[in-house]
TrEMBL record:
Name of the featured protein: Hsp20/alpha crystallin family protein
SUPFAM superfamilies listed in its UniProt record: HSP20-like chaperones
Domain SHSP, residue spans: 6-120
UniProt cross-references to InterPro entries, sorted A to Z: A-crystallin/Hsp20_dom, HSP20-like_chaperone
Family: Belongs to the small heat shock protein (HSP20) family.
Coiled-coil regions listed in the entry: none
Length: 120
C-alpha cells in the first residue's frame, strides 16, 4: 500500500482525498465536485487505478464564457495496492464524493512446495 500512499501524496494540492484501511479493504475517498456517475470514468488495469472526472456544468442559453477557470477535469492514475482484489472493487459517487472500495484478497496466496530428499 505504500506505493498508493506515496502516489496520493504527490498529487496536486487541488486534489482532496482520504485513504483508509481496514483488515478487509482499502477505501479511497476523493472529492469530485460537480461529477456524477455519468461523468466519471474509473478503471483498474495492469496494477493502476485510473480516474477521470468531468464537472457537469449547465450554461444558460443567454451566456457565453468570458473566462472559465473552474476545472473541468480530474485525471489521475495511482498504483493499485499489491494485496487488493481488483475484480471485487466497488465505487459510489454521491454529492461530489467518490468512494472507491478495494477489498483485500482473502488469505495469503501461498503455495507449499514439497521438498524431496535427492539422496534417496
Amino acid at each position: 500500500m505504500s506505493a498508493l500512499r506515496d502516489a496520493l501524496r504527490d498529487l496536486s494540492e487541488d486534489v482532496f482525498f482520504d485513504l483508509l484501511e481496514s483488515e478487509e479493504a482499502y477505501l479511497l475517498v476523493l472529492d469530485v465536485p460537480g461529477a456524477s456517475a455519468d461523468s466519471l470514468d474509473l478503471s483498474i488495469e495492469e496494477g493502476r487505478i485510473s480516474i477521470e472526472a468531468r464537472r457537469e456544468k449547465d450554461l444558460a442559453d443567454d451566456y457565453d464564457y468570458v473566462e472559465e477557470n473552474r476545472s473541468l477535469f480530474l485525471d489521475l492514475e495511482v498504483p493499485l495496492p499489491d494485496d487488493a482484489a481488483e475484480s471485487e472493487s466497488e465505487a459510489v459517487v454521491e454529492r461530489g464524493v467518490l468512494e472507491l472500495t478495494l477489498p483485500k484478497r482473502s488469505g495469503v496466496d501461498e503455495t507449499t512446495i514439497d521438498v524431496v530428499d535427492g539422496d534417496v
